[in-house]
Amino acid sequence: PLKLPQPKTVPKRLGTSQKKPREPQIPRSLIKQIFRHFAKMPVTRDAFQIVEKCSERYFKQLSSDLEAYAHHAGRKTVETADLEVLLRRQGLVTDKMPLTTLIERFLPLEYRKLLIPVAVSGNKVIPSK
C-alpha cells in the first residue's frame, strides 16, 4: 500500500519571546536636544554617551525616590508634594526659589498651563484638582 505524506507538526510558539524584557528609556533625541540647549556648543559622541548614562541613572534614582516617598505616606500614587520634597532635598526648591518659579523658568507655556493653577472668570481655577 502507498503511504500518503503526513503534514509535519510545527511546535506552537509561546506569546513571550526568549529575550529579556527591556526597561523603557528616555529617547536619545530628547536627551540630545535638552543637552544641546543647555551646553550651546558641539559635543563629541563619547561625551554624549556618558551624558546618556548619567541621565538614565539620574531618572532611575529620581523615580525610586518618588516611589519611596509615596510608599512612606501610605499611597500608591506619586503626588506633586512628593516631587516638591524631592526637589527641596536636592536643593533646587528653596524658600527663595519655589517650585512654580522653576516651572515658569524652564518649561514651555503649554506645560505651565497644566501645572500652575490660574483663576479665570466665573470663579474657576484651571487646572482643577
Automatic annotation (TrEMBL):
One of its GO terms (cellular component) is nucleus. Keywords: Chromosome, Nucleus. It comes from the Eukaryota. GO terms for molecular function: DNA binding; protein heterodimerization activity. Gene3D superfamilies: Histone, subunit A. Pfam families: CENP-T_C (PF15511). One of its GO terms (biological process) is mitotic cell cycle. Signal peptide: none annotated. It is found in: Chromosome; Nucleus. PANTHER family: CENTROMERE PROTEIN T. This is CENPT protein. It comes from Peucedramus taeniatus (Olive warbler).
